[in-house]
Amino acid sequence: MSHDEHGQHAHHELSFWERYVFSVDHKVIGLQYLITSFIFLLVGFALMGLMRWQLAWPGTPIPFFGALFPSDLAPNGVMSGEFYNSLGAMHGTIMVFLGVVPLAVGAYGNYVLPLQIGAPDMAFPRMNMMSYWTYLPGGILMLASFLMPGGAAQSGWTSYPPLSIINPGQTVWLLSMVILITSSLLGAINFLVTTINMRAPGMSLWRMPIFVWAQFVSSVLLLLAFPPLEAASILQLMDRVFHTSFYMPKDILILGQAYAGSGGGQPLLWQHLFWFLAHPEVYVLVLPPMGIVAEIIANNTRKPLHGYKTMVFSMIAIGVMSFMVWAHHMFISGMSASLSNFFLVTTMIISVPSVALMTCLVFSLKGGSIRFNLPMLYALAFIPLFAIGGLTGLPLGLTVTDIYLHDTYYVIGHFHFVVVSGSIIALMGGTYYWFPKWYGRKMNDTLGHIHFWGSVITMCGIFAPMLFMGMGGASRRLYDPTAQLHNLPVQGWNVVATYSAYALALFQIPFIYNFFNSMWRGEKTVENPWQATTLEWACPSPPPHGNFEKTPTVYRGPYEYSVPGRKDDFWMQSDKN
Amino acid sequence: MSQTYDPAAIMNNPDTHSGVTNAKLGVWLFLASEIMLFATLFTSYIVLRMASTSWPWGWDVLNVPLATVNTVVLIGSSMTIVMAYARAYDKDKGGFQKWMAATILLSLAFLVIKGFEYGPKFAAGIGPHTSVFYAIYFTMTGLHAIHIVGGIAVNAGLLYMSTVDGHWKNPLFLGRVEGAGLYWHFVDIVWIFLFPALYLL
Amino acid sequence: MGQYGWSLPVAASSYAGKIDFGIWLIHAAMLGIFVLWGAFFVYLLVKFRARPGHRAEREDHADTPAHISVPDSISKFPFAQILYKNKGELKSLIPDMVIMTFEVALIVFYAIPVWSSIKMSVPETADPIRLEIVSEQFGWSVHYAGPDGKLGKRKMPLVHFSNPIGLDLADPASADDIVMGNELRLPVDRTAVIDLLSKDVIHSFFVPEFRIKQDAVPGLSIPIWVTPTKVGKYEITCAQLCGFAHSLMRGDVYVQTQEEFDAWYQSRLAQIPAAATASNPAEEF
Hints:
Chain A has 16 helices and 2 strands.
């Protein structure tokens, strides 16, 4: 389908629209995804900034911005409970479905994966474009739901019925999710076909960089885990629009009135379907960033990764197992208590390959000659911070301790350590690492260091207090934590977290400035500034349409650094001698 | 810059290529996700049915004879699309168009019969809101009908493309027909599961 | 207030200690793992930092195992070839094995037995107190049986602000029942067996001091139990997002001596007018 299209595009001059907006070039699409998802991350972050004000100083007017909100959302500038819940639901949804996944898969996957396997483009370039152009409207629709009567969805990103059936805003959320899922499915199919069929000669499976493997496994997860959520969303949409009762039992009250529907549905069915998606989704959030970290570590230790195959097998094992652990989010949901024991065991099993991955990353440092450049700082920060996230998952995955910790701030702290100071830190490191490839220029080092240290310290300042609050028994999603006595002693931690969050926002300014400034004024670099071995560094920076002057041939594995007897300490995959 | 990508050279290398064309692989992967979609609905069906205190029997509330006719119609269309593919394989344009048109007609007939099945239900005030059984019945058959509509669009597109020389002579055309056929068989198979689950059991 | 702080609140139920044991044990293990790994990590960073004249050393890489010969002494064992030639990679699995052993021990000796005792069975005691807790947006109704020891029937259509749980007064068992709003009183050292229900959306019954948490799902009646061990005043909170006033959905728990509890119970009974509604707790909303 695609091959003849390449031929056509190479020959005629592209208009501005074809080149930058409706481009079929994976690199342009990758950058579109990059910029868009960074913007969505900022939006999600801004929503959280508002919530943090309410959490730290409940009932006080929001400074500056409070007056901007209509009085039904924030009367006199004080956030209402409905608005708080909307912000919470949208923060989660935006961060997961519009921020991190599109950044990890849409942006880095799109730009880097075809280059790393030596392909001229994705297998289906036009489908690739469609995937971006369904993602963007889906995202805009999601944001626009704030303008709907009743506001945006307010039942949490998990949207548990019956609450989600009752609350306003949910219909738009569901429609937008269906659109976003379609976009993800298109992307996943494209990545899989590209990886399976488009590899350059010599690029056998065991010569693929870890990042490609991570994208591959993530794409399988997206392909198989998203349709169940799509089906579940359709059922919920039916419940809301056509008044079916898939998730509604009989004999319940809705806002004080007897429920008029037929009843007979199962509220827990949604939870099962949702988490069947959402747990694999967690690994989609984590695996590609881990791949980036592995790339950066191999490059900056100047030696092959320790246990390349172990890592690949671990990722595959994680992928398979991630479909069998979903109900560990549901230990106290009212499902059969004996089922919990099964999911307890599978959860502990999945921790084994996860630990193996982390072990390999740490052991990879041994014997190296470690360069502490900017991307490496991010990759190194990933390891301990992600480890905190992983370790705090242990008491949550264990049924007994989860009784107390479930739905407390401990959970929030846990998965933010995983996703923010884990995944997002790694993804930012990826920006510094591949920026020279994207624009042929380097990002500024000083600003990068400010961004790095500022972000890492303030992230810990936000999420560590959450762990302490959770130990104190503070429940999540509380509009006003001070309404409950047992939260009062830990309320100070909320203030600490809020100050840290605002500081984190400030520390993103150097990054944004650095990004755009370096795009045009950064120091020019060569084709392979990090002296790396993988194929993306064997083409010009930025790569032209079609990527490689000549289809590269691959002669060796991805991380042949410091091969004895060679002058250079790196041996590119495409160098014959 | 020069375009040096040579699909043929890459396809012949078992080390770096599956040997299946991109389009076909893409369709298979798409079908994998579709299987998950319908499997989820079937799972929901089982869960809801297990948990319910009373569940109507298809024979009592649904029009089983019409659905049986529909089953035959749909299986027939699966056969005609195979014939269309065989004609296209032999570069027989007229034959391809004839069989493809038959496929489209049969699928339209399926939708019309479906309409005769839905119509009296709606007329009697029965809809998805009536009970969980009707909810799952209308959702699953409705979603399946949407898939039929999608298939008709694809098949009609191929029928149109076969009248344009540039498309008919394109070596990729056969692959497109094959993809459409795979999809159509999938839609057929979903119905073969739906029919007993909703109407007979 | 003294019972709350920066860490786990006071443990006031028979199984709170078991849960706390797990929490502290796992956190100790986590801290140990983190400190050991952290120290190793920093050591590696310092020892193998890039400096002039220092070149990275490659390990025996798995890609070239052919030249490695397996010593005779171990070649008889199954998989000796694969295991020996990949021993470099396999070494990285040692920490994994240690952690896995720890986890298996946790599951077998701790998680499954304790979970079963808390969530899968109710302890055999001579005289448990039985009650129902009905949750709604945004409050808790506690339903005690009257002196007849029977909980009256409830019917959803009867729900009214004067009858928050829809007690069916036609049922003779209902007439003497006590319904409290956002107030749970339990005698100390006596097992309470509670049926947890919801009238509208999913709520979650959480008393931090008891270390008890269970979602209340509409359409389901979920049995839970607790044996309070300390007299005191505690707090019920809702742990599952249930709407705009989720954070205001709280109640008080009073654990009293049996005598105090009986006195309170009798005083509530005395307030029930003959053949009138059971109770009329002030609703917050």
